[in-house]
Amino acid sequence: MANPILKIRNLTTRFFTEEGQVNAVESVSFDVEDGEIFGIVGESGSGKSVTALSVIDLIESPGRVTEGEIWYRNEALAEEFRGSRPAAVDGDFVDVRQLPEGVRRSLRGPSFSMVFQDPMSSFNPSLTVGEQIAEAVEVQRRARSNPRSTRSRTQGYGLGSLIADTLLPSQSYVSEESMERAVELLDQVGIPDPEDRADEYPHQFSGGMLQRAMIAQALAGEPDILVADEPTTALDVTIQAQILNLLRDLQEREGMSILMITHDLGVIARMCDRVGVMYAGEIVERGPLGEIFDAPVHPYTQGLLGSIPDVDDPSTRLEPISGNVPSLIDSEMPDACYFADRCPKAMNDCLTRIPEYELDGRHSVRCVLAEREYDPTEAIDSEVLADD
Ligand SMILES: Nc1ncnc2c1ncn2[C@@H]1O[C@H](COP(=O)(O)OP(=O)(O)OP(=O)(O)O)[C@@H](O)[C@H]1O
Ligand code: NI
């Protein structure tokens, strides 16, 4: 039964750069349900990572989430803010964007956690892997024993170096208990001889093993939602499959939800329950995996699927559909469907911004073909559009 843990509504993120305003994420909406893996797929530059970072509140200047809501189901927080910030509460949900900064920060770790493509950059090279995971455990323990004041000061998050820099400028001290938990976590993610490996430094780990360690660190806070941004892209195919299986096992065992970001339809096919397809900062089609793969409506989704010979092969990469990935600079974006200039079925109707059409409540699409058949007599010359 569908029970959302996260409801993203009209999330919009812009970067205010010297070249102009970049509309990286445009009015994106989706739910992540309890215990599911929701995938976001799209070509490079379509806004997947910025969506992930926006959800977990890690957008930095010159970027800003300018609009939208991030409803997170958490009874305790809803209770806490029902009186003081009624607009931020709806039933058991709180809109994370409307919570005080300190509270938002305290959600990193116990509520939201993240694994990235490059584990090396998220570990501090001068501390052992065990120490850094134990640190994440301690942050979590402190947060639990003192829910308010400590939580708002700590940086409980899957970034070992960040935690280390913040709490322990020069050396690490972690309790024996936290170290034991760290070893347990390393064991849980399938690292052999976890007790010995815990005393090693990041550079002594292989890429795959370090990726496992980063997952262990992200799990230290027992998060409700794990955001995984291209977690296997840097790894070779065999290791990729192992890490994906691990994430799946952990997701089932811990009952957490995963937001999986990838450009790889093979990963989506293998892992996800539901999927959102991104193009030019928008989710252009969203629905259950089977429906998106078997009955895609958006010509972009059809193109993506048509470009892969074998969806069971996780090494398959997206072949770009002919034409250019659009500029996301505000002044250069057309007042039309963003895909129209590459779309084989572009019609006169497409020369305006397209809303999200609901097909059956679970499947939605940003395309006029949701409502009507393609009519070749109304076709527009996409080349003309491209030159606009
Ligand atoms: N710090 C930044 N400053 C300016 N623009 C940015 C910044 N970060 C991202 N963008 C822009 O936002 C858009 C979306 O980028 P994003 O990283 O989300 O793409 P992506 O779908 O994750 O691509 P990839 O598959 O290559 O990781 C791009 O046009 C990118 O140039
Ligand atoms: Ni990305």
TrEMBL record:
Which keywords does UniProt give here?
Answer: ATP-binding, Cell membrane, Ion transport, Membrane, Nucleotide-binding, Translocase, Transport
Q: What is the lineage of its organism?
A: Archaea, Methanobacteriati, Methanobacteriota, Stenosarchaea group, Halobacteria
The subcellular location is: Cell membrane
Q: What is this protein called?
A: Nickel import system ATP-binding protein NikD
The record lists the catalysed reaction(s) as: Ni(2+)(out) + ATP + H2O = Ni(2+)(in) + ADP + phosphate + H(+)
Looking up Pfam families in the UniProt record yields: ABC_tran, oligo_HPY
Under Enzyme Commission nomenclature, its number is 7.2.2.11
GO cellular component term, pick one: plasma membrane
Subunit description: The complex is composed of two ATP-binding proteins (NikD and NikE), two transmembrane proteins (NikB and NikC) and a solute-binding protein (NikA).
Q: Name one GO biological process term.
A: peptide transport
Q: Which organism is it from?
A: Haloferax marinum
Residues of the signal sequence?
Answer: none
**Highest taxon of source:** Archaea
Query: What is the top EC class of this enzyme, as a single word?
Result: translocase
List the Gene3D superfamilies.
P-loop containing nucleotide triphosphate hydrolases
Q: Which NCBIfam families match?
A: oligo_HPY
